[in-house]
Amino acid sequence: MDLLQALVNGQSSDENTRKHAEEFIQNASKINFPAFLHGLATELSKESNPEPTRQLAGIVLKNSLNSKNEEINAGLSSQWLAIDEAQRSVIKDILLQGLSSPAHLARHTCAMDVACIGLIEIPNNQWETLVPTLIENIKSTNDFLKEATLEALGFICQEIDPSIMTKYSNQVLTVITTGMKDPNAKVQLAGTRAMGHALEFVKSNFEIKEQRDYILKVIFDNANSQDSNVKQVAFECLVKIVTLYYEFILTYMIDLYNLTVSVIEKDPNEGVVLQAIEFWTSLAEEEQLLYDELDRKQLIIPQALTQLIPVMLKTLTKQEEIDDGWGVTQAGTTCISAMAEVSGDDILPHVYPFIQNNITSPEWRLREAACIALGSILQGPTNFNELPNLIPHLVNMLKDPNEMVKDTASWTIGRICNHQISAIPNYLEVLIKALIEATADPVSKIAAHACWAIHNICQAFEEGPIGPISSLAPAFNPLAQCLLNAAHRPKPDEDDRKLKTNAYEALNSLISFSGAPVEPIIEILKLTLNDFEQSLKLSTNNPNLNTETYDNVSNLQALLCSTLLAVSVTIKEAIEPFAEFMMTCLIQVFSNQSAIIYEEALLAIGSIIHALDVKFKPFVPKTLEILSKCLVIVEMGSVTSIAVAIVGDIARIMGKEFTPYCNEIVQLVLSVLKNPKSSMSSKPNALSCLGDIALSIGAGFGQFLQIVMPILNQASFIPVYDEEFLNELRCALFETYTSIIHGLKSDEQSAQIQPYMGDILRFVGHVYEDKDRYDTVTVAAIGLLGDIAQALGDPIRPALEHEVVKGFIKEGYEKNFEIAQWTQRYIFGNKQI
Fold it and tell me: Which of 216, 500, 630, 822 is the most exposed place for a label (fewest CB within 10 A)?
């Protein structure tokens, strides 16, 4: 078998044939990588080869040089750069020649490969002739070459650091705009796509009015193209411009309004209409982001409501008979929602008459449109006084003969319960009754929305009573029953999975915030444990479950874990009779490989620890076995962060009884700190965990100081560019040092920390130099200084009578931190500082 035959066989419908082909290709790559890449480029360029085979050769070439995984990608880039320059040049020349291929898939793939190599070499100051060559290509009369050249430029612009391409910006912009004006529609489309990718690095051009006018004129011209593909991509460029260059668009708003509204109202191509609506959605979202920076009179959306809202309301009446996903109505809904958020109460007089006039219309499209409009404007207004008048209509619509109207009514009620519940306290009982019935609707999507609405109602009670209703305790049993019924529907389709998730989330909120007594919550706990046991039996007794069933079981177990969490947090020590059963179920889920289940199970275990406190001790050995495994699987992200926090909780309840576990556990926690792949959130938690261990085992922590303190010192000075994380890390470091000192002091072994005081005080001085540090860091630093003085006494006092320490204490006084006075007393006594 040669390479060409392997590429042909790689497309075979026979699995065995494909497998052998893939093995041949993998071996060829390993035996002689440069020759392998040259062979792929050659097969891609051969006009006699079938086009799918040529395309596959190009895709294999690209995948041999590029990966979405950053670490793998860096290795592939190095492997390419290690090839002799002459060999690389031959491959690059073949690909550049392939840009003029008459075969669309082949030249498109060549463009992709040229860009892939360019993205490796250009940042390394190599292949300096690439961009000039591509620029020269646009002068050709070969439309195929021009199209593929623009595609290659677009791919490069899409991925490369904009600062690297700045020196080419004028030339690239000229080439792209030339392509956008080409009479050939395919060249024009490639040019317009390239413009969308290049917008980020033409900032300097966009800041010059004459050049900005020209760029926008070319985009406007293509937005009026007779070719719907060109037109749609031109509108995508306008959407991107709103986000990148908001400060410049006001001058062009009349043209933009006329252009977009004309398309929304008249264009037959849905893709174009969606982008025209997206322009206004993006503009509204950008103004939300800038809301605090701009004067309200400068905002465009609130001033344009009179013109825009009628246009957007019309889109709500263009529903399909069957809701099959994203369309004009959904886009219009999103746009109105974004406008409501930035306009607040100002949007109400523009939308409410439409709602009022159509919510009882005999025409289902108008009824649903009114309901959509209402649901769209709920997040933003704060004085929606007319809302209570609409509740009876919405309740009736939950029984509408049209399924889409019912669905939208349930969604709208959910939105009301999420954003405007304080406006309808007198209708809450009516809504709850209607929602209980709606959870039994045979249409799963409607029942799911009803569960979501109940969830939002329960969440609202976290803040206290709603109007005359002090709690949901009286309604707990019927609400819990309807949610459990909804969660146990037998059908496993996608809508039912959403229903199951919403039902459990609502049930958990009901448990947490209803104010119900312990007894009914215990009944839910029993049912949950029974379901858990059955699901574990299903997965244990059937190791060869198909993927869909396995995923359903995994998702169910994650939901059941979240219910155990809610129960433990709510009724606390009342879970004790069930704790062994709960822990048995939770430990078993770690035979699964799902990060989501690990997270949920760990959170549930943490809640049980907090509920039982020292009564959790019998479960510690098995729990630590699980936690030890979780501490090393950093690829699961937050799993490690949660696990390390739970280790700290266990140390706290165990006290000195935790000592036998420390040799292994301390090393594992330190590995989290040292591993560059550990998530950011896990590192402060690991520091806090070390502090918890030190507090728990007291002088026993002394044996670990030699390995722990150097790592803490290294963490103290590591460069961190995320401000929030930097402050969180520093706060955790101060608190860890404090805990170590307290732990040693409790056993009268404070002197063991003395050898490390120089490093600790250098860290204090380093942090003091940062005048932008958070107040929490300042308080932690001042507290640590006081603890050092209290623990070590006179021997350390001269080192603490330093300007940095005085500065921290003075800052504490200026900000009224009580800890400053305490620290001053231990360091300086009655002396003035």
Answer: 822
